[in-house]
């Protein structure tokens, strides 16, 4: 029901018009290269909104084929204002509801997502290019997130403080108001839930702007929230790029901006938000170190290195792309990691056996390949991959595929080791001692994540303590259960997503002081 008429499965020739069906019936059979999205992708006031114009429309590509799958029409000042007003009117109702009542609505939303996970995941794959196996996991993480914050919605509480003479004070945790979420293209649906679930649980409303490259799934989340029973306008979606984002950050009706994306854009978001003293959460990029000691369980370390580098075609902010391997085990590590990397099945992301799909766009693919050539120029050795990949299936010829790459002979001063590549490229470097590797691992302006593989438990915790990063994985990498906080140190940002603490980032504290005696006036 929720998507009736969203998507026309385009079938060639005369059948075309007759075959137009609802997405619910077409998605199960949807295949790469067939889906065209026609319906409006903006959502406020409890429904999808058709803009009265097509100004500055941008094509949205299916990464696996290079085909245009829909048009993204950006919202201008008027539309942004309408969405924020719509969110504000919903906020006035939602904030007054008991936390337990909000929880019930959120649980229903989580249930609906779980029920429709296959279809949402397929649409995510078609728009993003990642493998269906990963997308299904992303959608599962999404409903976990909503369930988790539903559980916390009833827990908002303050403190009672005793003061002399029977006087006392209490604190209340109150929502902030209308919050803005601005998302990246690597986890489109999941980012929308990471931001909206805690925001809504605390009693806020949210206006969400997805990346212009991945506009199609956020509006499905909006429909699901609506179906679950949120007041009309509580979760709005406005489409657009930098300009629309700027309008959101400057709007006086906005209390907070939660952003996921690159460092340069993060700086702009912070600057713009400062004009209105808006709170910000910034989830930015990284160039995270993964340290592998010779006493590790090698098979797990190799698997960890692959998980740290190749999820979502390497387009993950917390990836461990600087892999430091203790010199004694370097040959074995490289042999094993290269062997496994070469066998990663690349191809049609909707097929169950595929483990690596297409990068998000042609420019992104070119940028990543450019990093590989630069690395070669600077003296790195390509042990495998790093080349454009053309799958045998003819419909994938125009897709943005590349073979996953392992670089050896890397030094800390190389571009590939210093900059966030955001593609499937692992740089491997040897190290000798713990002290040395910690110093090298921390020698970066980023600080999102880090990892260590060792069987020495004291070493593991000592290294975790000394790494300057918001997360340290011990003997694994890139698992991110919703129960634990996620966020950066240094230029990787501040504020946290997930975990209990995020309730604090979406609420504010009010102090109420109650005088029980007479007023002692100085005047
Ligand atoms: N660390 C991470 O999670 C991510 C890092 N990146 C990095 O950034 C590079 C560029 O990718 P983009 O998608 O262009 O990232 P971006 O950081 O420019 O975009 C992220 C979001 O911010 C919005 N935005 C852009 N400029 C804005 C502005 N001036 N005001 C308000 N909102 C604005 C975009 O429309 C998008 O929704 C990638 O190649 C990658 O290296 C990109 C996405 C996620
Ligand atoms: C799910 N996980 C941990 C692999 C990545 C989530 C962070 C991001 O948005 O890049």
TrEMBL record:
<comment type="similarity">
    <text>Belongs to the aldehyde dehydrogenase family.</text>
</comment>
<dbReference type="GO" id="GO:0005829">
    <property type="term" value="C:cytosol"/>
</dbReference>
<protein>
    <submittedName>
        <fullName>Aldehyde dehydrogenase 9 family, member A1a, tandem duplicate 2</fullName>
    </submittedName>
</protein>
<dbReference type="InterPro" id="IPR016162">
    <property type="entry name" value="Ald_DH_N"/>
</dbReference>
<dbReference type="Pfam" id="PF00171">
    <property type="entry name" value="Aldedh"/>
</dbReference>
<feature type="domain" description="Aldehyde dehydrogenase">
    <location>
        <begin position="56"/>
        <end position="512"/>
    </location>
</feature>
<keyword id="KW-0560">Oxidoreductase</keyword>
<comment type="subunit">
    <text>Homotetramer.</text>
</comment>
<keyword id="KW-0520">NAD</keyword>
<dbReference type="InterPro" id="IPR015590">
    <property type="entry name" value="Aldehyde_DH_dom"/>
</dbReference>
<dbReference type="InterPro" id="IPR016160">
    <property type="entry name" value="Ald_DH_CS_CYS"/>
</dbReference>
<dbReference type="InterPro" id="IPR029510">
    <property type="entry name" value="Ald_DH_CS_GLU"/>
</dbReference>
<dbReference type="GO" id="GO:0004029">
    <property type="term" value="F:aldehyde dehydrogenase (NAD+) activity"/>
</dbReference>
<comment type="pathway">
    <text>Amine and polyamine biosynthesis; carnitine biosynthesis.</text>
</comment>
<dbReference type="InterPro" id="IPR016163">
    <property type="entry name" value="Ald_DH_C"/>
</dbReference>
<comment type="function">
    <text>Converts gamma-trimethylaminobutyraldehyde into gamma-butyrobetaine with high efficiency (in vitro). Can catalyze the irreversible oxidation of a broad range of aldehydes to the corresponding acids in an NAD-dependent reaction, but with low efficiency.</text>
</comment>
<dbReference type="GO" id="GO:0047105">
    <property type="term" value="F:4-trimethylammoniobutyraldehyde dehydrogenase activity"/>
</dbReference>
<feature type="active site">
    <location>
        <position position="283"/>
    </location>
</feature>
<dbReference type="InterPro" id="IPR016161">
    <property type="entry name" value="Ald_DH/histidinol_DH"/>
</dbReference>
<keyword id="KW-0963">Cytoplasm</keyword>
